[in-house]
Amino acid sequence: MKNALIVLLLFATLLPTVSQWGTIAYYHVNKDYIARVLCENRDKPQLHCDGQCYLAKQLKAQQDKQDKETTERVQNTPVVQLFWEAGHLFEFNPRWVELPALGVPSYQFPSYASPLVDLLRPPQV
Predict the structure, then answer these.
(1) Are 50 and 31 within 8 A, CB to CB?
(2) C-alpha–C-alpha distance, residues 60 and 110, integer Å
(3) What domain range includes position 29?
(4) How far apart are CA 92 and CA 102, in angstroms?
(5) Distance CA 89, CA 106 (A)
(6) DSSP characters for 11-64?
(7) Which of 53, 24, 20, 22 is nearest to 37 (CA)?
(8) Three-class SS of residue 67?
């Protein structure tokens, strides 16, 4: 049962691509009848059309039908929006804060007991 379902789904998936081959196979099987009865150029045997005009017309009609169905399917496909993000509004409300005036900081010398003085000793000459 599972195999039959797989074959059926595979056939349904491949059917649109195989349909053109079916039209071509029908043309080759019935080439004499198409050339004698359905060909547009049956009055002009010097063209050696042999029904190829009919085949071209059928393939073009089939392609146009397929394009139309695809276009309709795409246009009628509902768009599902999975995620929606609320718009973030940026509000710029400047707040002025008065800072107290600071005096100029004086330069402080490190004391001689500082570890930096011991580490960063100039080389002796």
Answers:
(1) yes
(2) 92
(3) 16-74
(4) 28
(5) 46
(6) HHHHHHHHHHHHHHHHHHHTHHHIIIII-TTTT-GGG--TTHHHHHHHHHHHHH
(7) 53
(8) helix
Q: Is 90 part of any domain?
A: no
Q: Is residue 106 part of a domain?
A: no
Total residue count of the chain as it appears in this document: 125
Number of domains in the chain: 1
Is residue 61 included in any domain, yes or no? yes
- DSSP code, position 101: P
Triad 12, 14, 17: Cα angle to 5°: 130
Predicted TM-score (pTM) of the model is 0.49
Give, for all 125 residues of the chain, the pLDDT tens digit: 888 888 888 877 776 667 788 888 888 888 888 888 888 888 887 888 888 888 899 999 999 988 898 888 888 888 887 877 777 777 777 777 777 777 665 555 555 555 665 666 777 87
> Is residue 6, in this structure, part of any structural domain at all?
no
Tokens of 20: 């053109």
